[in-house]
Amino acid sequence: MIIQVKQDITEVQKERLIKEINQIGYKITEVITQKGTYLVGIGSAEFDIRKFGHHEGIQDIHIVSDAYKLVSRKWKVNPTSIDLGDGVYIKEGDMAVMAGPCSIESEEQIVKVIDHLKANNIKIMRGGVYKPRSSPYAFRGLGIEGLKLWHELASKAGIKIITEVMQVSQIEEMMDYVDVFQVGARNTQNFNLLDELGKVDKPVMIKRGISGTIEELLQSAEYVFSGGNEKLILCERGIRTYEKATRNTLDLNAVPVLKDKSHLPVVVDPSHGIGIRKFVHQMALAGVMAGADGIIYETHEIPEKAYSDGQQTLDFAQSSQLASQIRKTFAMRKTFDLL
Amino acid sequence: MIIQVKQDITEVQKERLIKEINQIGYKITEVITQKGTYLVGIGSAEFDIRKFGHHEGIQDIHIVSDAYKLVSRKWKVNPTSIDLGDGVYIKEGDMAVMAGPCSIESEEQIVKVIDHLKANNIKIMRGGVYKPRSSPYAFRGLGIEGLKLWHELASKAGIKIITEVMQVSQIEEMMDYVDVFQVGARNTQNFNLLDELGKVDKPVMIKRGISGTIEELLQSAEYVFSGGNEKLILCERGIRTYEKATRNTLDLNAVPVLKDKSHLPVVVDPSHGIGIRKFVHQMALAGVMAGADGIIYETHEIPEKAYSDGQQTLDFAQSSQLASQIRKTFAMRKTFDLL
Amino acid sequence: MIIQVKQDITEVQKERLIKEINQIGYKITEVITQKGTYLVGIGSAEFDIRKFGHHEGIQDIHIVSDAYKLVSRKWKVNPTSIDLGDGVYIKEGDMAVMAGPCSIESEEQIVKVIDHLKANNIKIMRGGVYKPRSSPYAFRGLGIEGLKLWHELASKAGIKIITEVMQVSQIEEMMDYVDVFQVGARNTQNFNLLDELGKVDKPVMIKRGISGTIEELLQSAEYVFSGGNEKLILCERGIRTYEKATRNTLDLNAVPVLKDKSHLPVVVDPSHGIGIRKFVHQMALAGVMAGADGIIYETHEIPEKAYSDGQQTLDFAQSSQLASQIRKTFAMRKTFDLL
Amino acid sequence: MIIQVKQDITEVQKERLIKEINQIGYKITEVITQKGTYLVGIGSAEFDIRKFGHHEGIQDIHIVSDAYKLVSRKWKVNPTSIDLGDGVYIKEGDMAVMAGPCSIESEEQIVKVIDHLKANNIKIMRGGVYKPRSSPYAFRGLGIEGLKLWHELASKAGIKIITEVMQVSQIEEMMDYVDVFQVGARNTQNFNLLDELGKVDKPVMIKRGISGTIEELLQSAEYVFSGGNEKLILCERGIRTYEKATRNTLDLNAVPVLKDKSHLPVVVDPSHGIGIRKFVHQMALAGVMAGADGIIYETHEIPEKAYSDGQQTLDFAQSSQLASQIRKTFAMRKTFDLL
């Protein structure tokens, strides 16, 4: 059960309401976000929604039987729009193109990528300064200093930054230098991290777990939302299967399913999804047709020299062509009037 | 190693050639198909291709190190075109739309589907007369009598038939009434069936196994080709993973990979690939953008009343819209000059 | 619903019974096996079992809601015992050790294996004469002549034969030379083969599909049983997962689950289950503790020279040690009074 | 390359050595643990080990080509023994039984479990005070206060504590109250957490990721070891597959493989591995036969009333029987002289 309360509800009204709901065996979690206040009720008894609907201070009341509640489209039909400022959005009805290197490497590299993005009207740059690596001996990123440099260069150019946060202690130091926090596939169920990201007023994109289910992705988003942060984006980036001809199995089925179940925007990452440079193009366009609201991919001036993920990174010529074709494909999709 | 021999090679020349190849430790399988004669050499020793190239009677010689040989694009760069007659093709550069019910049910049903296909300029009808069912108590199809009736009605209408063959003994009786034999996902590694289909002169579409790898699909095609039948089509229909929100996980990554590795046309089945009616549309169009040469999907006048697979079957209005959008998407993809 | 009818039921009684059951919306399949006659009712309406129980000619009536019926332990509590003659059984409460090479190769090889088995009191020999191979260019087995030779040598030595049948046409020619037909992992859902094996009076061991579920294995057994053959054995041989450090993932969980759901004996194949010689031993013993009624493994005089699967095949010294330890482990398990 | 240096190596000697190794293109990470100092060299050039072996200050030098180095058995043949004090060990050649509830719930519950453990000579108690839950609305554990209470009661009784740590900030506060830190399956690749656990002198048991590979588990252990903490234990707890008849697929194959690849002790968790109470018993004993050095399982006075995981939790009578049978099975395994 989700009860959206009015801005001007009094404490007394709220307490009376909660008490009454508790009486039917429902436990209430109060959620205060940037946009509203919600009482989320967890329980299993059946009840008549009209029993509570007449209470003062209630704006709306919904029954949501899914394990995830606040991220469900069942109570919030209008899609969530993520506003990054300066007219940059990630939202349904729009196509957000996000591109950049796997790792942020140097000032020169950042400048070259920014120039490429500007030339192609790409407004959001991806890149890692904290890199999760399966081996402790691998390059782990430039860290906060790299991020500050990147932010300085990007903000001058009017480019927004999306980058991965790996642990709670990084949130505060990164806060002023990122436009979107990314939660990586190995941290989709790092619940402490999700809890803390619920407390900040900054968009968060959550990647699907390495072998995460669609439902688990939605529940991870629920963690952040119930912590107080509604500014959420979901990302399909491929799952682990028995097939080894590709790095991951890009599960584009997840796109229409997520769009149907949730009001949050959905982004596709074809670079990790297939992991082979020459096929990223097809999978990006397939992602658009599957219903994605954004595409995030890897590009680098000289992919062969990238510190990481070179095998799946596009060069700038390929990236220019892809960005253009993503937009054309999206324009056609809009005429089809699909979800 | 693949040696394509000339039409007029003499037996003496061929024997001399085989003997010499045997001497470097390669075992030769002679393959005679509708289109040519090939000597496939299996071995591991390295050798100088020029050593054999000068022999009389040789048209071409290629080193193919993949486990699959004759279906590889490494020796045959030109894509294979499947000609069903009357100007109907399944081939690269074209978009074959194939639609029809899961099961063939009755004359009335067949007639209605045919009318729908004709109205939408769809030339190939799918449908099952032998149904593989996990339970022995489920409907198993109308059998050969249903196929004969279907063939009579379809051929009058100029519609081609693709339908599943489940066992060796059915091949002969079905032979005159099908345009494309389909090998189902549970029979992808039914090697006896593949051997026998190698002996007929009729196109065969092989579906990827329920949890088959891309390489296994190519090796299954190799079985049919090496048996003597080059007229092959590959089909991605979703694989089995841990994700249960959808019936299967449609692995569109497989499309560009298969197109890259093989000269055979590749078809996508979004109906089985996602298994949920309202999302078939998006996955079909995603399949087109991923590079498919054809789309095969399920349609029925009243999906709710279909004998099987109703939950993933489009009604005729949805099918008409989809067929049109598949073609528009394909037309756009062609302008992108992708694989 | 399963109705076991009495031997002396009259046709009139049976027809009356069937008619009455049809009236509540259940479809009846009559199954006649070596051991009895059953009416299997498929439907979804709830009904009072007493409504039919009073009919003449009925021995027993059970409600079985699983998709599989006749192989369920819900109606047949007593475990099925497979009697191979000469005091050789595969059954609960006993430990059947089955060993032999992957492929039958030559008279010399057969003789050596038989001598090894006799020396270790192993009564059942495994081996392949028809080999399913993913590549058409690989060794496919000695065929029926190899089987005849093997049978001659084995029957003299009092050794029983279990071997794979790959297609319907092989059943009749193999019939007189095998003691147990094996259905391989690629044929678990070859429903035509299962149908035909339902018509013969010879034990059938069905291996779990390469990525088959436990329920699918039971349904495949249901095919054979409902075809008329109750003499069935189930085999866990590892499933396909993302883990590539081992050939397959031996799913020993399946053993207690299958034993709980079905009255059929369950065998474990550790050789295919892990695929690495030095670890077969541990997995065989683990299989015993998981509750297996039999262990089937690969052994060869010189594994390195085996035509196939050498990497997972034990030499005779290893095999002798394993057979002894399997029995000791089983003897201890019996004292534990587990399922 | 792993170079174990002598205790009395001088800084000058060490610098000279590192410089020389750098010259062949290897990057050196210096690792100082409770037990020794190691230089781990990462590079790909081939070199003659004798080139460095003569240097002063070197105790041993090994080439380890695996991605994981310090946890490999290739350089350290002797198994790692984890000493918890008071004669309690987790080590090869021994069988550590660890039992307790999923969640720590109350003083009364703790006391009852401790009494049960003492009565059965079980020395290590498991239990969660921080619970990773996929839903934000579920019970998340008693936290640090619960741990303190538990520690007070357990230490009086001579019982050791193993419990999950979920994030970096918990390490310090938990430090004095745990005997073994557990890293849960959702945190196996939480690299920041692993880094920090490398800095403490306390044993750490790492569970295999929900769909983690065997190699990833070893690399996660490498993180902790290379951070300075050698006191490591690996735990197989089931992986995610397509099979839904059981909670997870317990991959017992992993046990002999891990024992072969690494010198670290390996523990099996049958409770999460199968997730069904009545089958935990068989899987525990199968784990012993597969080669486990310890078994960790869930028990509760009244499983039906447990706050979490009740469906897979044994009652005390079942637990007593299991502990005894684990020991008997292990005693028999020892006579078999397996790995």
UniProtKB/TrEMBL annotation, chains A, B, C, D:
Gene3D superfamilies: Aldolase class I, Phospho-2-dehydro-3-deoxyheptonate aldolase, domain 1. It holds the Pfam family DAHP_synth_1. Residues 88-331 form the DAHP synthetase I/KDSA domain. This is Phospho-2-dehydro-3-deoxyheptonate aldolase. The lineage of its organism: Bacteria, Pseudomonadati, Bacteroidota, Cytophagia, Cytophagales. One of its GO terms (molecular function) is aldehyde-lyase activity. One of its GO terms (biological process) is aromatic amino acid family biosynthetic process. The keyword Transferase applies. Keywords: Transferase. It comes from Echinicola vietnamensis (strain DSM 17526 / LMG 23754 / KMM 6221). The keyword Lipid metabolism does not apply.
